[in-house]
Amino acid sequence: MADDVAAVVWDSALLDYDMGDHPLNPVRVELTMALARELGVLDRPGVQMITPEPASDLDLTRVHRADYLDAVRLAPIDPFFTGWGLNTPDNPVFDDMHQASARICGATLAAAQAVWHGAARRAVNVAGGLHHAMPARAAGFCVYNDPAVAIAWLLENGARRVAYIDVDVHHGDGVQAAFYDDPRVLTVSLHETPLALFPGTGFADEIGGPNAEGTAVNVPLPPSTGDAGWLRAFHAIVPSVVRAFAPEIIVSQCGADAHRLDPLADLRLSVDGQRAAYIAMRALADEVCDGRWVATGGGGYALVEVVPRAWAHLLAVVTGDPLPPQTRIPQPWRALAGSRRPGTTVPETMTDGAEPPVEPWPGTSEDAVDRAILATRTAVFPLHGLDPHDPRD
């Protein structure tokens, strides 16, 4: 394995996944890459830039039905098209939708292939993370499910155990559904409770299908959960189940929409808390699978204030040392961001001024977050030989 190499998958053509006047605006990806470039992250020693190709039908049909691919191709040229979750407010059709969606999948595939073949230890596609798409249905702004497509490729190419960690504010339902009955894939999702937020799934008792019990792990958190509670939940659950599962590679979806400024959800993380999550995922990969880690983006709708900073931190963690939180944002990027989204407050530094606390789970508590932690641990820890009540597990 190339110990000192990290792959960044990028092509401006990834911005063609553009639903028009829609929350999922590709400007967030454009600004992310521009900020990482201004901060020197993409010029670090050992960074390998990869230009992706669109995923082939063979790649896509490891997860999606062939007739659904036909529908995606047809929808933009038929003004009366209905069905398959397409041509809806969440998933409007757009020109060359199949090609743009397939390229997102191809980028995450390229990241997975670089890591699995040993060309890089870690890899990232910030344009990816479209985790809601189902085998024959678009959902939640997602046409094709790039993390699931990449995981399916890994399984077909020799991986025996893959762990998927999803920190988007919305439940990673499409990836969970793709592998719910497959004991080779552990899916872990931390998200705002489905009682309050789309897609309405991701309860603690969703634990995996027959012969795969314990391989779906869901941590539904109450609205207004901030850095302290979120990170407490992460550390009380994720490392334990991932260590017990012993994956050969970790795939992450790093949606930035759990931030307190995100307009579509109600968790209260800071950019600093998100940075801490990325550092924790990299450390876990280093511990359990020789550093093999594939990271993707995901949701995030504070297009200037949050997403570019969060994912520039992600790019830094993937490619080397984390950026110091107090790093000042270069003026050329601030001017670019202001021109792309006039009237938006453009941040000046890479921090929200928060020092994410490290609070161990107490084992029992009337706090709503701690009750959620216990519910998840009770549902899945015994299936991994772990004690749900012992904070040391």
From TrEMBL:
Limits of the Histone deacetylase domain: 22-317
Pathway assigned to this chain's UniProt record: Ketone degradation; acetoin degradation
Pfam families (UniProt xref): Hist_deacetyl (PF00850)
Keyword Protein transport annotated: no
Keywords: Acetoin catabolism
Family matches, as InterPro entries: AcuC, HDACs, His_deacetylse_dom, His_deacetylse_dom_sf, Ureohydrolase_dom_sf
Family membership: Belongs to the histone deacetylase family.
Protein name as catalogued: Acetoin utilization protein AcuC
Species the sequence originates in: Actinoplanes flavus
